[in-house]
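Sat 14:20. Reprocessing the chain from the morning session after the first attempt stalled halfway. Input below, unchanged.
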Amino acid sequence: MIWPEGVMAWRSGLAYSQDLRERVLAAVDAGRAVREVASLFRVSISYIYKALGRRAATGDVAPRRGGGSRPPKLAGHEAALLAHLRAKPDATLAELRRWLFEVRGVSVSNACIWTGLERLGWTLKKSHSGRRSRTAPMSPRPASPGGLTSPG
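Finished this time. Tokens:
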């Protein structure tokens, strides 16, 4: 399917081409109505007003740079966190959170700690590879369907 000019960028979340930007603003500068230009170039009215405002404020019509992502809050603290976990492998998330704040000065949520530990390959779950407990089950096993519920 061939998309009309400008529609593909709108549908895919990409910035409009520099050529399209310049033609839209040139049409508005030539005296055409914003609604007419929006319909002609298949861009939103909102886009045109934002582009005009940005050009008036900065003189620039090029697309802005993308936002990118922030580094994790625990970046730079991983080695210390792993060392602390090796010394205290049974520490809870709340204890790790308190330790990070008191010793490292980092205030994070339990979810942030959990995500950081997961990224480091550390788990706080109990290991199933260890020896089973010798304690007996506390509850009797459920009866099978159609079976007797008590010996007798």
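The helical segments are 7-12, 18-29, 34-41, 45-58, 78-87, 93-104, 110-120.
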